[in-house]
Amino acid sequence: MTRYIVLASFTDQGIRAVKDTTKRAAAVREMGARFGVQMKDIYWTLGKYDIVLTVEAQDDASMTAFGLAVGALGNVRTQTLRAFNVDEMQGIIDKMR
């Protein structure tokens, strides 16, 4: 599985209904399963981003479809980062030789 970190900020719509954010998170977790995406962690944060997710997906296409579906709901804007663990990073470095 491929890992991603998703940084999310509430839209005007999302902040108006912020009291439902935990319910929406549960619904997004269930929606992810349809795309082959598993939400590992979700954190509500202070600062530039309101929510940080760690997720795993089968591939980039599955993650992109999931991200677009979440964005279409209109509650958050996201930035998705591909994440590499130490073994994956070592493999990348090894290819540089």
Descriptive key words:
elongated, 4-stranded antiparallel beta sheet, 33% strand, Alpha-Beta Plaits, alpha+beta, 4 helices, 97 residues, single chain, GYD family protein
Helix proportion? 40-55%
Distance between termini?
A: 26 Å
Main sheet specs: 4 strands, antiparallel
What pattern of helices and strands is seen along the backbone?
EHHEEHEH
Q: What's the β-strand tally?
A: 4
Count of discrete structural domains: 1
| Stretches with pLDDT under 50, minimum 5 residues | none
Which percent range describes the beta-strand content? Answer: 25-35%
Secondary-structure arrangement, i.e. CATH architecture: 2-Layer Sandwich
- Provide the residue-averaged pLDDT: 97
Strand order of the largest sheet: 2-3-1-4
For this structure, the CATH topology is: Alpha-Beta Plaits
| Count of helical stretches | 4
Name the CATH superfamily assignment.
Lrp/AsnC effector binding domain/regulation of amino acid metabolism (RAM) domain
* Structural class based on helices, strands and sheet pairing: alpha+beta
The rounded Rg comes to 15 Å
CATH domain class name: Alpha Beta
Name the shape in a single word. Answer: elongated
Protein name: GYD family protein
Organism: Cupriavidus taiwanensis (strain DSM 17343 / BCRC 17206 / CCUG 44338 / CIP 107171 / LMG 19424 / R1)
InterPro entries: GYD/TTHA1554 (IPR014845)
